[in-house]
Amino acid sequence: QVQLVESGGGLVQPGGSLRLSCAASGNIVSILAMGWYRQAPGKQRELVAGITSGGAPNYADSVKGRFTISTDNAKNTVYLQMNSLKPEDTAVYYCNADLTIPIMTGIPYNYWGQGTQVTVSS
């Protein structure tokens, strides 16, 4: 079965960096898009960055110039390089993917990872 497993979260000081990874595993035919969302306490979950299978990225305005999303297609993995971190970046970060699986190759299915905590604090 398909799973998305995030890693790389943790505690970092303002101005520091973290790299989040999300590996998709299972019987996957193709990944159409992957992205990162985050949810802070008391706030709505929001899109941080996304990337299509063609490599076209998009970012929330709040992270443009600081975060970079990338993929390793051979490993079915998406990364989020987070630089110049701010306290307001503190949230649980969730990996998301639209992908296809055998016998349903024409129908993308959406999957979520379990989330990884990112805390930016002095």
Task: Summarize the helices and strands and which ones pair or pack.
Elements: E1 3-7, E2 10-12, E3 18-25, E4 30-39, E5 46-52, E6 57-59, E7 67-72, E8 77-82, E9 91-100, E10 109-112, E11 116-120
Parallel strand pairs: 2-11
Antiparallel strand pairs: 1-3, 3-8, 4-5, 4-9, 5-6, 7-8, 9-10, 9-11
Provide a quick synopsis of the model.
It contains no helices and eleven strands. It has 122 residues and is mainly β. Strands 2, 4, 5, 6, 9, 10 and 11 form a seven-stranded mixed β-sheet that branches.
The total of beta strands comes to 11
Terminal residue distance? 40 Å
The residue fraction in helices comes out at under 10%
Low-confidence stretches at least 5 residues in length (pLDDT < 50)? none
| Sheet with the most strands, sense and barrel status | 7 strands, mixed
The 3D shape can be described as elongated
DSSP helical segment count: 0
| Overall average pLDDT | 95
Structural class: mainly beta
Classify the beta-strand content into a percent band.
over 45%
Q: Which radius of gyration do the C-alpha atoms yield?
A: 14 Å
Order of helices and strands: EEEEEEEEEEE
